[in-house]
Amino acid sequence: MLRLFFRRFTQALLWFAAGSVLLVLVFRFVPPPGTALMVERKVESWFNGEPIDLQRDWQPWEKISDDLKIAVIAGEDQKFSEHWGFDFGAIQAAFAHNERGGSIRGASTLSQQVSKNLFLWSGRSWLRKGLEAWFTGLIEILWPKQRILEVYLNSVEWDAGVFGAEAAARHHFGVGAASLSRQQASLLAAVLPNPRAWSASRPSSYVGRRAGWIRRQMGQLGGEGYLAGLNDSRRAPWAQ
Questions:
Q1: Which fold has domain 19-52+62-229?
Q2: Is the pLDDT score of 89 beyond 80?
């Protein structure tokens, strides 16, 4: 019985590994039709009796403002072009901060956020963290950096039920994602740590200050030149 259990368990792991690799590879070329987080939000609305209208309109890379791309990197993951999915320096700093008590600080990279939002559920269990690490590794191996950022910008939540750059730009500013100004882009990036509590169109003083800091960081990153160098030669040949 024990041997049978381990054989079945091993087979299940192999099937899961093969299936997840295939799914990640497909989404390198095909826009994901939705995300696990969108499903989670819809199910939550059924249980709490508060209807939610999910908004999302996928836009390709060239139809998203370069200012928004840079603003999100400046605000969320300034080592995005350098790491392979995990910023171990930020993880160590967050762990030290959390050990001291007080507010919980995260250290998720954009790649980790994509894997969590696209494939997994919310929570802090070790199982979810392990699966997040698995999918993050696959994404970094199989996708170029530009694709990771493209999927992130089309999947992240910017208000309750508002997913992706196009829906967020229209919801907050009445423009398309391609037409976002530098200031609007920085405001959208500024609310990402808590998008359902903070508003890009009605920013608090804290959000306004954070947006100003993000604009300064955008200049230091190098703007469009930074974006052009995302898919550099350090990437694996199959992820170019």
A1: Penicillin binding protein transpeptidase fold (1.10.3810)
A2: no
